[in-house]
Amino acid sequence: VTTTSESTHQEFPAVDRVAEELRVDLLRAARAHAAARPRLLSRRGIIGSIVAVALVGTPASLAGAGVFDPEPALISYECIDAKADLEPLHPVTGVPTEGPGAPVAVTMEPLVIPDNPCAGDSKAPLPPLPGTHDD
Amino acid sequence: MPPQGSAEHLKRSVRDPEAFGPFYEAHFRDVLRYLTRRSSDGHTGLDLTAETFAQAYLSRRGFRGATDEEAAAWLFRIAKRQLARYLRKGRLERRALARLGLEPPPVDSETEREIERFAQLDEIRAALGAELDGLSPAHRAALQLRVIEELPYREVARRLSISEPAARARVSRALRTLADALEQRPIREEIPA
Description:
The structure holds two protein chains of two kinds.
Chain A (H helix, E strand, L loop, with lengths): L4 H7 L1 H20 L10 H22 L15 H5 L51
Chain B lengths: L5 H7 L7 H20 L2 H17 L9 H22 L5 H5 L9 H10 L2 H14 L2 H12 L4 H8 L3 H20 L10
């Protein structure tokens, strides 16, 4: 038994009729929904969703882990005194003494070395560097 | 051999919906025949065909091929997916049709019979019946329990007093025998892949 498209047209008028009905309906709907797409997300939509989830979800998860906390509770200081001394360093400043715009000398603030509260006897003199001792 | 210009029409339909018409006309009968044979029902075959073309229209931007063979294969992949969904769920889905606001054409019993004649369902049923008669009683019984009565393999094995792997092997061998026999017949069809 063989069937060809040509014989189908002659022998199956009802098939031709439903084919034509569906074609007319389909094209009418096609014209009305020229830009319609399947409801499934397109590739671009999927990528966009992943990016959106990453943007929204990641900070939340990181924040939950305490990454963004300015002072996470889990950090403990070995030396409590050192924590109190954590202040921003002041930049070295100086004032020109002579000649506007062309200073010839700069007055430096005295350099103060802060005590290291965790180093025991911080006043003890440092041992001389090798090769620098007096003969 | 797929109709000439099929891929071109499908691609053009992205910008010009009217171009979907020639694409539909070129493939309607092949798709209807395929889906009617696989669902063993003219009405279901037509409904699945309508859903397939509605889905093809909605997905036409996704066609990446260039040849008419690729266009036909793309369409049949959609048809096979619709069929698989129907067979799995046991009911028709009309998602794409609903999205386009479409209904499949109404089908009276006479039209349904004609669609089944068009798909040569009677010949296929007769051929299957003849080949079933040619199977050994053991294979025929396994096939009937599994395919016709849709029993799980465990139950097939229990009723035939054999192990489950043996039941699977019998059904598999019976289906292979039927498929080989149908391959030799003129109702064999060529599905684009």
